[in-house]
Amino acid sequence: MKHKIYRTAAATLAVAMLLSGCGKTPVSNSNEPVKVSIQTESEGQAVVDGMEQLTPDGPDYERLKDLPVPETEPAPEYLRLGVEHEKISELQARLMELGFMDNDEPTEYFGNVTQEAVKTFQRQNKLNQDGIVGPATWDAIMDPNAKYYAAQNGDQGSDIERIQKRLYELGYLATADLVTGNFGEKTEEAVKKMQQVNGLDQDGKVGRRTVNLLYSEDVKPNLLVYGDKSEVVEAAQKRLKELGYLTTEPDGTYGNDTSVALKQFQSRNDLVVDGYLGPSTRAALNDPGAVANGLVLGDQGDSVKQVQNLLSKYGYLSSSNVTGYFGDKTESAVKSFQSNNGLASDGSVGRMTMAKLTSNDVKKSTGSSSSSSGSSGKSNSSSSGGSKGSVGGSGVSGLLSIASSKLGSPYVWGAKGPNSFDCSGFVYWCLNKAGVKQSYTTSSGWRSIGKYTKITNFNSLQAGDIIVVSGHVGIVAGGGTVIDASSSNGKVVHRSLSSWWRNNFICGWRIF
Fold it and tell me: CA-to-CA distance for 446 and 424, rounded, in angstroms?
C-alpha cells in the first residue's frame, strides 16, 4: 500500500517537522494538531481517508511519520495561460498526440501555443472556447476515444486560415479573398476536390490524412502541373529563364526542366518547395524583387546537375563530374567558362552566367576539361553544407551564436524569421544566416534531406548538428543541450537534450 500526503501551504513546515520527528509544530510553540489530507492508493484504487489529526502523540503519528511529502502542490482545478504545473506536460503530450499541437518535448508551462491548441480542441468538441482547461475540457482531452484534429464547415480560426492558404496555393481555392479563416461552403468544396484528386475519402473535412497530405511533396495540385501546356506556363518559363533558373528554351510545356527550375526558385524565395506553379509562386515570380538564381560552392540538386551537363557539353567539365553537387571542380569549370565568355570570373552561376550557358553563342573550351580526371567532382564533401568559415572563421560557433541571438523569440506556426519561428523555420533561418545554402523544408522533410553527413546514433551528436525527432527539429548546442523553436514553451529556447529527444530520435545531420 502506498500513501501520499497533501497539505496547504500554511501547514507545510509544520507537517514536515512532524514527519521528520521534531516532536512539535512551530505554530505558536504548541502541540496544536495540524489537519492533513491522507490519500491512500491500494491495488490501483485511490480513496480519500479525509482529514486526520496528526500530532506527535496522536494515534496516527507512528503510521504516518515516515510517509513522503510531495514536492509539488496539487494541480489547480483550472489550467490556464501562465500556469506552471507538472500536469500541463501531460496535457501538452495529449494535445500533440491528437494533432492539436506540433510535436515537441512537453513542458510544465501553459503558454499561448497551448492555449490556442486547447481552443481548437474545444471548438471541435463543442465546448466553450475559452482556452481554459477545467474538469470538462480535461476529461474530454484525456478520453481514450477523443478524436484526432479535424477542421470542417462552420469552424473558424488561425488554423483554418493556414489550410485555406495552402488550398489556394494548390489551386483548389480560386481567389485570395477566399482565405478568410472561416471554413465555409467554398472551402468545403475545395477540400472535397483536393481529396478527390488525391484519392482520399471525399468528406470535406481536414483530418489526419488530409492535413498531412496538404504539406506533402506527393500532393497533386488542381492546376498547372507536370505535362500541362499553356501560355501561362510559357510566361512563367520566360521569367524563370530571365532570373537564371531555367536551363532550356521556354516552350509552354510544363516538363521536368520547368519543375526543377520552379523548385530552385521556390527555395530561393522562401516558398514551399513543391515544384508547382500555384498562385503564390506566380505572384513571387512576377514580383520585381524576386531573388535571382545563384548556384555556388556547396549547393546540390537537379539544378546543379543541369548546369554541370551544360558545362560538360561545352568541354569545361568531364562527364564523370556531373554529380549534382557543386564542388571545387565545378567551380573551376564555371570560372573557366566565364573567363572564355567575357563574364566576371567568380565561379558562381548567377543570372548572366545562366543566360550565357543556355544561349546559342557559347564559346567552347579550347583546352582539356577543367575536370578531366576520374574524380567524382565532390572534393568538397557534400557533408560540408556550405562555406565552413563563413561566420567569424568558425561555422559551428557562428551557427550557435546566431541561434542563441534569437532566444525568447515567439513560436509561430509556419514562421521563418527573423522575429518569430516554427521549428523548421528556425533551423532554415539560422543555417542561411550562417552562410549555409539550405532551402526551406518541413520537419518531416529533414528526415531525408540527404545533403549532409547523416548521424544515426544519438550519442554521436555534437555541437552544430541538426537533430531530427518525430515531428520536430533543432540545433544541437553541445554539453547535452539543444536550441530550438519550441511549441510547448511558445518560444525559442536553449534546453537539455532530455530522454524525450532520445526516445523520439530519428537522425542527425552534420553540417560542418
Answer: 8
CATH class of 86-142: mainly alpha
CATH number corresponding to 384-510: 3.90.1720.10
Cα separation, 122 vs 129, whole angstroms: 5
Distance from the Cα of residue 93 to its chain's centroid: 17
CA gap 384, 328 in Å, rounded: 12
Name the burial class of residue 272, with classes exposed (0-12), middle (13-18) and buried (19+) by CB atoms within 10 angstroms of its CB: buried
Query: Rounded CA gap, 20 and 27, in Å?
Result: 16
pLDDT in tens, the chain (512 residues): 333 333 333 334 434 443 444 433 333 344 444 444 444 433 333 333 333 444 566 666 566 556 665 555 787 899 999 999 999 999 999 999 999 998 999 999 999 999 999 999 999 999 999 999 999 999 999 999 999 999 999 999 989 998 998 898 888 887 888 999 999 999 999 999 999 999 999 999 999 889 888 877 678 887 655 677 878 789 899 999 989 899 889 999 888 899 889 988 988 887 878 788 887 888 899 888 898 888 888 787 788 898 999 999 999 999 999 998 888 899 999 999 999 999 988 888 887 898 889 888 899 988 754 444 433 334 433 433 443 333 333 589 999 999 999 999 999 887 888 999 999 999 999 998 998 878 777 787 788 887 789 999 999 999 999 999 998 999 999 899 999 999 999 999 999 999 999 999 999 999 99
Q: Mind giving me the DSSP string for 126-163?
A: T---SS-B-HHHHHHHH-TTPPPP-B-TT-BSHHHHHH
The reply to whether 86-142 and 384-510 are identical in fold is no
| Cell numbers that stand for 341 in this block | 565568355
What is the largest distance, in Å, between two alpha-carbon atoms of the chain?
A: 105
Q: Residue 333: CB partners within 8 Å, gap ≥ 6?
A: 308, 311, 316, 317, 321, 369, 370, 371
DSSP letter assigned to residue 448: G
Beta bridge partners of 492: 485
The residues facing 416 across adjacent strands are 421
Other Cβ atoms closer than 10 A to 367: 10
Q: For residue 6, which amino acid is it? A: Y
Specify the residue for cell string 513522503: 68
Q: What residue ranges do the domains of the chain occupy? A: 2-64, 86-142, 158-214, 231-286, 302-380, 384-510
Q: Could you tell me the pTM of the whole model? A: 0.61
- Phi (first) and psi of residue 466, to 5 degrees: -95, 125
Residues whose CB is less than 8 angstroms from the CB of residue 188 and which lie 6 or more positions away in sequence, other chains included:
152, 153, 204
- Integer-rounded Cα Rg, in Å, for the chain is 30
CATH class as words, domain 302-380: mainly alpha
